[in-house]
Specification:
It is built from no helices and ten strands. The protein is mainly beta. The strands form two sheets. It has a six-stranded antiparallel sheet, with no helix packed on it. The model has no long low-confidence stretch (mean pLDDT 93).
């Protein structure tokens, strides 16, 4: 059984924005797009800086340092210089609560 941890409420994440949280001491970037929330590992695979300090554009999260972009659904890079994906995690919404499991999305 997959363990979920409450990390915030929906209101904590601006629509079209990103925040950083920790789940079991793992940094996680939460992106809200409409009624959906996506969770990605909050460390850029290129420069090892927080992705949650970047910007969200059209379903991608852009790293603030060198401009690497990652698909919020898959974690795959959509723009250089990053060539390796970041992990994505399972998100559940329970009322207004956002819950995250560190198990990888399938």
């Amino acid at each position: 059984m997959t363990a979920f941890e409450k990390v915030c409420t929906l209101d904590d994440i601006p629509d079209g924005g990103v925040i950083g949280v920790e789940v079991e001491e793992t940094p996680v970037a939460l992106v809200r797009k409409g009624g959906e929330v996506f969770a990605l590992h909050d460390v850029c695979s290129h420069a090892e800086v927080k992705l949650s300090e970047g910007e969200v554009y059209d379903g991608t999260l852009e790293c603030w340092l060198h401009g690497s972009c990652f698909d919020v659904r898959t974690g795959k890079p959509t723009g250089p210089p990053a060539t390796r994906p970041v992990n994505v995690y399972t998100v559940k919404i329970d009322g207004d609560d956002v819950l995250v499991s560190l198990s990888k999305e399938s």
